[in-house]
Amino acid sequence: MVETDDLLALAVRLAREAGAIQRERYETELDIRTKSESIDLVTEVDEACEALLVGTLERERPDDAVLAEEGSGQDRDGAEWRWIIDPLDGTTNYAHGYPRFCVSIGVEHRGRRELGVVYDPLLDELYQAVRGGGAFLNGRRLSVSAEVHLGQGLLATGFSYDVRTTRDDNVAQFARFLKSARAVRRDGAAALDLCYVAAGRFDGFWEFKLHPWDVAAGILIVEEAGGRCSDARGGPPPRSGAETVASNGHLHETMLAVLAGKEAD
Ligand code: IPD
Ligand code: CA
Ligand code: CA
């Protein structure tokens, strides 16, 4: 589809431009505030990236709907195309000078994931996928790992910002995987975690209470790299991000079983 090619080119350009802001202001003195919880941060760079992304879309794609994490997008009823944007995924890392964060841009066509772009500006790694066209990292085709044994798998997860107060805190699941996988990482940028599953660096990832902007690009990138994404019971991964399990496919059922409280083989 010609329009998809144009949208992909625009998404790549936007991701690189926002990534350049992140790179330039990385490890500089930042204005940092809190949002939903005392550990939920937003920096002036999240806002500068979102202003660039949403402002450009307003000018160049005025009929499209935009959902952006910091709230400046326009939800246009009946729009054919919808952009779902995390202007800076990994804000806590960014605020601490921990070099793992990215821009994530997903685009839906009539409610179906159509393309995704994730850009890590420090490594200059650009992940992209178009439905049915495969997933790529800097132009190299990606495929998920071939690992079939959970005990030899490297997994990743994350915890929501209400972790201090909720009972639904992912700690029991984390403990079970810690004892059944080779190792589990909590690296603080869910969109990149998903891309690492696509690239075969991680064999699986799960997280609860994510948001649409965390997963809109990454789920498509995993699927286009040959992986599987689902909710915690094996159904389609919700667009809300409320439950996300992603894997190389081989480990998926085992991961679902561990999430359901069963011992891994
Ligand atoms: C967060 C990161 C983190 C995940 C959190 C997300 P943010 O996004 O992706 O890895 O564990 O659930 O909210 O706030 O840095 O954009
Ligand atoms: Ca995020
Ligand atoms: Ca964010």
Strand order of the largest sheet: 3-4-5-6-7-8-9
**Could you state the CATH homologous superfamily of the largest domain?**
Fructose-1,6-Bisphosphatase, subunit A, domain 1
Radius of gyration: 17 Å
Biggest sheet overview: 7 strands, mixed
**Ligands bound to this protein structure:** D-MYO-inositol-1-phosphate, calcium ion
Indicate how many domains the architecture comprises. Answer: 2
In the CATH hierarchy, the third-tier topology of the largest domain is known as Fructose-1,6-Bisphosphatase, Chain A, domain 1
Q: What is the structural class?
A: alpha+beta
User: Uncertain spans, ≥5 residues at pLDDT below 50?
Assistant: none
Description:
It is a single chain. With 265 residues, the protein is of the alpha+beta class. It has helices at residues 2-25, 44-60, 91-96, 171-178, 190-198, 212-224, 252-259, and strands at residues 32-34, 41-43, 65-68, 81-89, 102-109, 112-120, 125-130, 135-137, 140-141, 154-157, 183-185, 204-208, 228-230, 243-247. Helix 1 (2-25) packs antiparallel against helix 2 (44-60). The longest helix is centred in the first third of the chain and has 24 residues, at 2-25. The protein is globular. Residues 86, 89-92, 158-160, 188-190, 207, 210, 214 line the site of D-MYO-inositol-1-phosphate.
Index terms:
D-Maltodextrin-Binding Protein, domain 2, 2 domains, 7 helices, 25% strand, Fructose-1,6-Bisphosphatase, Chain A, domain 1, alpha+beta, globular, 5-stranded mixed beta sheet, binds D-MYO-inositol-1-phosphate
